[in-house]
Amino acid sequence: MEELKKRKLEEVDNDNISEEKLRSLLQPLAKTQLLDLLAKLGSKYSYIAEEIMNTASGDPVHRKLFVRGLAWSTTSETLCAAFEGHGEIEEGAVIYDKITGKTRGYGFITYKNMKSAQEALGASSKYIDGRLTVCNLACEGLSSGTITSDQAQRKLYIGGLSPETTTEILLSFFSRHGEIVEGSVAYDKDTNRSRGFGFVTYKTLEATKKALDNPERILGGRNITVKYADTKSRTTPIQQPQAPPSLGNPYPQPGPAQGQPGPLNSHYTYPPSVPSYPSATSYVNPSVASTPAPYAPPPQYTYLPSSVPPTQDPVGILLNGPMSMPSYPFHMPQQ
Questions:
Q1: Residue 330 DSSP symbol
Q2: Cα–Cα distance between 71 and 104 in angstroms, integer?
Q3: Is the peptide bond before 261 cis (omega within 30 degrees of 0)?
Q4: Which helix (H) or strand (E) holds 31?
Q5: What sign results for the dihedral spanned by CA atoms 259, 260, 261, 262?
Q6: Which residues on adjacent β-strands are paired with residue 194?
Q7: Which helix (H) or strand (E) holds 183?
Q8: What is the mean pLDDT of residues 227-249?
Q9: Following DSSP, what letter does each residue of 50-114 receive, concatenated?
Q10: How many C-beta atoms lie closer than 10 Å to residue 275's C-beta?
Q11: Is the pLDDT score of 8 beyond 50?
């Protein structure tokens, strides 16, 4: 088998395939096929692996780190000093707000070679100005290996901290439950004083559960609060509804005698029967139905003429009856 491979390699060398010919062969291949081919050749031949490393190191995407969790007092000089132990730094800066001029809590570090960046990623957590910072490749943003899908279930909120509790004290207290990848006390931007709470993110879910179940909640002489930073991440088992307690049968029901087994309300059916709607043929259109007979005319009444003469009003107006009843007396005189 090995002799056959050598023979094929010799045949390829004898053919002396040009670079243009190789490009034309590789152009129709998909990206995944090219990646598999280069990875396979690089693992077998060291000079191909070295060429791949040199090409990748020239791209700043593999040398630029994103550092988050910086203190408000951290400057670009202190940031570079914390990372220069891994290699020569090409550029490093803390990002500031353009309006307020204050730090935004993160920065960037760019190394001159990719090897230094890989070493820095191996120790992604660093103490800088009393804060535990975390770094990852800038091209990955917040989707790096340190930020996994279960981070919400590994991040805890710590409340009720005393003003004297620093980040070092907080992390030292909670590190007994497991490895911490990120954590700090929250400080006010203007006064740089503790706001009385902080956050701790563990590397594993087991360590997070230990911290939640630990009954000792006293730090700095105060009772502290420990809970999930994201309340939605807490998974609680679904409780099945419980049947209400049996109150017996306070009202006698027809059917089996009291105290004897048998279903209650056995003569009732559910759902109850509903009468059907009348058919279309039984419906009579009001416009077609016969109209009722008109009302009978009212009886006519006649009034006899009055024998009492009309009276005279003190003003001199003769008071007669209504126009429709000319003889009807409007005012009766005294007898």
A1: S
A2: 9
A3: no
A4: helix 31-44
A5: negative
A6: 187
A7: strand 180-187
A8: 57
A9: HHHHHHHHTSGGGTEEEEE---TT--HHHHHHHHGGGS-EEEEEEEE-TTT--EEEEEEEEESSH
A10: 5
A11: yes
Could you tell me if 198 and 161 are in contact, meaning their C-beta atoms sit under 8 angstroms apart? Answer: yes
CA distances to 86, 95, 117 from 89, rounded to whole Å, are 9, 17, 9
- Nearby residues of 147 by Cβ (< 8 Å), 6 or more positions away: 136
Amino acid at 325: M
Cβ atoms of 204 and 190 within 8 Å: the answer is: no
State how far the Cα of 134 lies from the Cα of 179, in Å rounded to an integer: 14
Distance between CA atoms of residues 83 and 91, nearest Å: 11
Euclidean distance between CA atoms 156 and 203, whole angstroms: 12
Q: Which tokens in the block code for residue 73?
A: 């007092």
**What confidence tier does 91 reach under pLDDT thresholds 50, 70, 90?**
very high
Helix (H) / strand (E) containing 128: strand 125-128
What angle in degrees, to the nearest 10, is found between the helix axes of 46-57 and 31-44? 120
pLDDT tens sequence across 9-24: 555 554 577 888 888 8
* Closest C-alpha among 143, 144, 140, 69 to residue 107: 69
> DSSP 3-state assignment of 148?
coil
The string of pLDDT tens digits covering residues 192-210 is 888 999 998 888 899 999 8
Instruction: Tell how strand 218-219 and strand 222-223 pair up.
Output: antiparallel
Half-sphere exposure of 16 (CA within 13 A, CB side): 1
